[in-house]
Design brief:
This protein is of the alpha+beta class. The chain is built from six helices and five strands; from the N terminus they run αααββαααβββ.
């Protein structure tokens, strides 16, 4: 049974139940909204599981507070970007892809600098780079650019991630778009 068949089954079930109960059936659009919401929820759950799998696979030494913070950020719609120590993108959350307009194939292997442009403050970029070169956490507000060229202001936190041997294995960036 494909998605179209599932959708039609839900619509028919809704109309049948509504008719037998003597009330107005839900419009088909309600089912579409429901299905989209369910798909988003499943995708978010998959991303949460992926983040947990990364932690186990790479043996990141995260405190419970850090781990919960990353999961909470992801649930709240923050964008997450995982890079290797040389700062090449290995994974990006769906919210990152949605916010920037890029596809996974366009960002994987790239460096986050691809998001910078004309109004990105070079002093802030240098400060971020210096912290990362010392494997230190850094927070900053930065102007980034979507694929279509639109600028957006974001609040960025980047943490170095170390394994149980103390080796730097990755950086994890958490980004919230700042409305304004």
């Amino acid at each position: 049974m494909n998605l179209s068949d599932s959708y039609m089954e839900l619509v028919n079930r809704g109309y049948s139940r509504a008719g037998s109960e003597g009330c107005q059936p839900y419009p088909a659009l309600s089912y579409e909204i429901f299905l989209l919401d369910q798909a988003r929820h499943k995708a978010r759950q998959k991303e949460l599981a992926q983040l947990e799998a990364f932690q186990m696979t790479f043996d990141w030494q995260l405190s419970r507070r850090q781990r919960q913070g990353y999961l909470k950020s992801l649930r709240q719609g923050a964008t997450l970007v995982l890079t290797d120590p040389s700062k090449h993108i290995l994974w990006a959350s769906q919210s990152f892809l949605s916010m920037t307009g890029y596809t996974p194939t366009e960002v994987l292997g790239q460096r986050p600098w691809m998001l910078q442009g004309r109004d990105t403050d070079p002093v802030t970029v240098d400060r971020i780079r210096e912290h990362l070169n010392r494997a230190e956490s850094v927070k900053a507000d930065l102007v980034n650019y979507r694929k279509n060229g639109d600028a957006y202001l974001c609040r960025l936190t980047i943490d170095p991630l170390h394994n149980s041997l103390g080796d730097l294995t990755h950086f994890l960036a958490v980004e919230f778009a700042i409305e304004g």
